[in-house]
């Protein structure tokens, strides 16, 4: 009897292990799609998206599509670190404050075809909910906007990064308002960094800071800030730093406003020669204080803003000692036949003492050097017609001769 019980227990344990192993081995989805509908309530939308976020694998993405245009309450999402929500849905509404509230340390990306648009009188359209929330908010092709006729004195932010970073790669961020001094801003961050490399950020109306930071860095290497109205500041930073590429701010009214401890500079290019190391060449000081200079001793160019603060900027251009084993980014020169900086290769005859850029159109694609821009060899049948002509002549004239 004891032996029978032992056998039963052993079989049960074996089945238990197999079952457990099967559960643990079940694959976890790396990408989950969620479609929202007009008939859904905000609570239903929130529950479905949050369930997908909780279910998706670490490092995975949740893509939201569909449309909801009469949202009447907040949508709150918690995004853990290493998880991303890609927002491709149309989501809009009209109520008091805080349209989409984010918590956690993940990433929320408003991508192409996505839009979050609210008419609010306070709070923010899209933002981190609490001070300890550091979700990275990215606009990579979509639209985030708040258009109002008036706004409360408490202030409105279209994107509120708070202590998280905000990135604008492409797309549109619009802040609109007027009539009161409410501290409206298209993008605001307290301790997080704001980076604009593409797209458009605009302020319409009055009393608006298009981009504002309290303590973080504002870096703008592309895109455009458009200001249209009275008493508008394009970029304001109280205690952080502003680094700009020339020619990306348009409109009238104010431009750059910095606090007593903030440093603002304008940089002339994104392609940096190593000869600038230790100098301030190409760096124009906008603020009243600061002595920035280049630190080009590492793998990437850096601008030393303060004693213990440096930011990476741009890429190195081709150096004379380049062995021409790989494609490189050359320096832009006024006599450059291409309109813009481009990636090219060294030609075989280049002695590599002074690499010269190859005109883009000559090569089918950028290849590893040596880059042979000569046309491809002719096919084997090229010239057959000449040989046939000689054969026919020989036959004809030989027949006449005979």
Q: State the shape.
A: globular
Name the beta content range: 35-45%
Strand order of the largest sheet: 2-4-7-10-8-5
What are the low-pLDDT stretches, counting only 5+ consecutive residues below 50? 11-25, 149-154, 319-376
Count of domain modules: 2
Please give a structural write-up.
- The chain has 402 residues and is mainly beta.
- It folds into 2 domains: 29-267; 317-375, no CATH class.
- It has 3 helices and 25 strands.
- It has helices at residues 2-25, 42-55, 384-401, and strands spanning 31-36, 61-71, 75-79, 84-87, 90-94, 100-104, 107-110, 115-119, 123-128, 136-147, 156-162, 166-177, 184-189, 194-213, 217-237, 241-245, 249-251, 256-258, 263-267, 271-272, 283-285, 293-295, 302-306, 309-312, 315-316.
- The protein has a 6-stranded parallel β-barrel with strand order 2-4-7-10-8-5. A 3-stranded antiparallel sheet has the order 22-23-24, with no helix packed on it. A two-stranded parallel ribbon has the order 20-25.
- Helix 2 links the parallel strand 1 (31-36) and strand 2.
- The longest helix is centred in the N-terminal third of the chain and has 24 residues, at 2-25.
- The termini are far apart.
- Mean pLDDT is 76; it is low at 11-25, 149-154 and 319-376.
């Amino acid at each position: 009897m004891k032996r029978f019980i032992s056998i039963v227990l052993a079989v049960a344990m074996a089945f238990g292990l197999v079952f457990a192993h099967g559960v643990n081995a079940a694959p976890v989805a790396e990408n989950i799609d969620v479609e929202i509908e007009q008939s859904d309530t905000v609570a239903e939308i929130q529950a479905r998206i949050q369930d997908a976020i909780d279910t998706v694998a670490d490092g995975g993405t949740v893509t939201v599509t569909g449309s909801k245009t009469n949202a009447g309450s907040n949508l709150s999402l918690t995004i853990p670190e290493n998880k991303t929500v890609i927002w491709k849905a149309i989501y809009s509404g009209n109520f008091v404050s805080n349209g989409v509230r984010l918590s956690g340390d993940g990433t929320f990306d408003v991508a192409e075809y996505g839009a979050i648009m609210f008419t609010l009188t306070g709070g923010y359209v899209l933002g981190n909910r609490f001070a300890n929330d550091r979700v990275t908010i990215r606009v990579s092709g979509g639209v985030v906007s708040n258009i109002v006729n008036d706004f409360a004195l408490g202030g409105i932010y279209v994107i509120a990064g708070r202590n998280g970073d905000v990135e604008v790669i492409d797309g549109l961020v619009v802040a609109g308002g007027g009539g009161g001094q409410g501290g409206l801003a298209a993008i605001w961050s307290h301790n997080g960094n704001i980076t604009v490399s593409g797209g458009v950020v605009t302020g319409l109306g009055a009393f608006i800071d298009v981009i504002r930071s309290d303590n973080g860095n504002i870096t703008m290497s592309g895109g455009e800030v458009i200001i249209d109205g009275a008493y508008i500041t394009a970029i304001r930073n109280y205690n952080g730093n502003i680094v700009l590429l020339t020619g990306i701010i348009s409109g009238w009214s104010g431009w750059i406003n910095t606090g007593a401890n903030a440093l603002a500079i304008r940089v002339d290019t994104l392609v940096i020669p190593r000869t600038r190391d230790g100098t301030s060449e190409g760096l124009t000081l906008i603020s009243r204080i600061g002595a920035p200079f280049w630190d080009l001793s590492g793998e990437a160019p850096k601008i030393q803003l303060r004693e213990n603060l440096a930011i990476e900027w741009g890429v190195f251009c081709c150096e004379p000692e380049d062995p021409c084993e790989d494609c490189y980014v050359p320096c832009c020169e006024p006599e450059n036949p291409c309109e813009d900086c481009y990636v090219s290769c060294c030609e075989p005859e280049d002695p590599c003492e002074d690499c010269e850029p190859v005109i883009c159109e000559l090569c089918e694609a950028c290849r590893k050097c040596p880059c042979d821009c000569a046309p491809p060899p002719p096919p084997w049948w090229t010239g057959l017609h000449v040989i046939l002509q000689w054969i026919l002549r020989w036959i004809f004239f030989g027949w006449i001769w005979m």
